[in-house]
Amino acid sequence: MDEVNKTLYIPLYGKAIVSKQKIILNDPMAEEIWNAEQFPIKGKSKSKWLCYNMAMRAKVFDDWTSSMLNEHKQALVLHIGCGLDSRCLRVNAPERNWIDCDFPAVIFARRRYYKETDYYSMRCFDATNQDDLLSLPDAPCAIVVLEGVSMYLSNEQLRDMFRILKHKYKKILALMDVYTEFGAKASKYKNPINDVGITKLYGVDDIDQLLRTTGCRCVMEHTFTPQYLVNELKLFDKTIFKMLFTGKLYRKIYRLYEVRSE
Which residues of the chain have pLDDT under 50? Predict the structure, then answer.
């Protein structure tokens, strides 16, 4: 795997560690895969605070995906940049069409742990490739999960992706985390992904400007750290975690947006 692909091990580690503690996220598949892969995590990537953050982010994405599936019965779920994540198992979506998409090396690794069914498939995919986007299956509605993806795409690449998806699907429902431009610049010095060799990231300061010509718009900003999940931490850990990952400073670095087609 190249450096971008290797970043998948950071959230995998976090989810596995937190799942073993029986808090925030129930993810036995992450535990199983981590035990099998044992990728050499080091430095900031091993921080327990980051583990909590990765697990909370995953849970927020899970709950949003589940909510969208409940509202849109005929929707197709597109998890773009799925890595080795087990959202397809964590979200209760029986007989709902779901495609996990990522680069070939990731899908090759993923096939060791996940099996395709009549409703679930894995696809080699590049979000910057127009042919890959246009070749996705037709559906009346697409639920697009973009967790940990946007920061590897330029603003123009993100804009093009949403334009093509809007052309492809009548209704788009997407959840996307982004770094601000300040966050992208600061990540050169403090981001755990530096531990696997990533040095270039992109930020979004004006989500409305980014989406202006795509046929989509931002309808809501979500929190990565809802209080009910923070409350699952022990008192000392809760206090430190809130200092690190909540409040105005964190929002200057990292944001979570819900996007819908107009």
Answer: 196
